[in-house]
């Protein structure tokens, strides 16, 4: 599959990247010990949702505890008060937002990693008993290609295509990038049940969460015609619906929580695409938002 060039977008604030790894560097002391580590996740956040799905696919409830955080952070800077002690213990004089996801070490009370791809990889490689089911050996380049395609060709392109501040030509170019990416994925999935290999891997997790975001978040800032064009890739959306029926995927999905999180930080006006839902996700009532209505909170 080809990888689409990135669309421009405005970066969002982020916490420092703690990049400790489990079982890779003996100097770090982060050995793969069951029940030593803890995940702090808000599944309304796409990065956290990916980790939660991977954790369930690997059946790691007994090996790595999970603390579930609210959909909407409780601090004005977008952070969680509950995570502040971990950040304070891990970064001297830390003053930034205490963001999720976090992989912490219960033995030391400090953060191991806040880097979602590393966290998912370490869960898959260090705690799956050597089966390498979710992250197959030799699949690194394929998985990274899917990650780039999702980040650049879907997420960033959709954000740019729906930006009220962008020029019409820039929005049209971004929409073209988005549609080409979806078309490439749609073609790739003809006669395939999964993105790579013959089973569910983190490549499927990556793509599925990206499609959820496209429908539940980005769609609200696109016009109805663009959303109809997006929805036309039937094989791709059938794949998304099929995975939504898997307990590891649909079991963590709360579209109402995603909507609350989106409303809490997004003040951009809604577009006509908000009235054209693509998928009826598990637990989701039919979307009856009037055309042109704002998605802002009260």
TrEMBL record:
Gene3D superfamilies: 1.20.1050.10, Glutaredoxin (3.40.30.10)
Region Disordered: start-end pairs: 279-298
InterPro entries per UniProt: Glutathione-S-Trfase_C_sf, GST_Omega/GSH
A Pfam family this chain is assigned to: GST_C_2
PANTHER family named in the record: GLUTATHIONE S-TRANSFERASE OMEGA-LIKE 1-RELATED, GLUTATHIONYL-HYDROQUINONE REDUCTASE
Name under which the protein is recorded: Glutathione S-transferase C-terminal domain-containing protein
């Amino acid at each position: 599959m080809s990888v689409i060039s990135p669309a421009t977008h405005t970066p969002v604030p982020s916490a420092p990247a703690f990049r400790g790894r489990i079982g890779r560097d003996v100097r770090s002391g982060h050995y793969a010990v069951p029940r030593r580590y803890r995940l702090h996740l808000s599944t309304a956040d796409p990065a956290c949702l990916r980790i939660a799905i991977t954790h369930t696919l690997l059946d790691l409830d007994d090996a790595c505890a999970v603390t579930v955080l609210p959909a909407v952070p409780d601090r004005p800077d977008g952070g969680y008060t509950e995570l502040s002690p971990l950040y304070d213990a891990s970064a001297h004089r830390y003053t930034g937002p205490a963001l999720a996801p976090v992989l912490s070490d219960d033995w030391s009370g400090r953060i191991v990693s806040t880097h979602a791809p590393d966290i998912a990889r370490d869960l898959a490689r260090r705690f799956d008993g050597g089966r390498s089911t979710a992250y197959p050996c030799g699949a690194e380049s394929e998985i990274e290609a899917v990650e780039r395609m999702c980040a650049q060709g879907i997420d960033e392109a959709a954000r740019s295509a729906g930006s009220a501040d962008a020029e019409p030509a820039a929005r049209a170019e971004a929409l073209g990038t988005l549609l080409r990416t979806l078309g490439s994925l749609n073609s790739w999935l003809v006669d395939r049940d999964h993105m790579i290999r013959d089973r569910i891997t983190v490549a499927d997790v990556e793509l599925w969460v990206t499609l959820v975001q496209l429908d539940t978040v980005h769609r609200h800032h696109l016009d109805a015609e663009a959303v109809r064009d997006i929805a036309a890739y039937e094989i791709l959306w059938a794949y998304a619906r099929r995975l939504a029926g898997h307990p590891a995927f649909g079991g963590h999905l709360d579209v109402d929580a995603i909507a609350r999180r989106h409303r809490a930080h997004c003040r951009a006006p809604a577009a006509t695409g908000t009235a054209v839902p693509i998928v009826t996700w598990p637990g989701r009532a039919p979307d009856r938002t009037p055309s042109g209505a704002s998605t802002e909170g009260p």
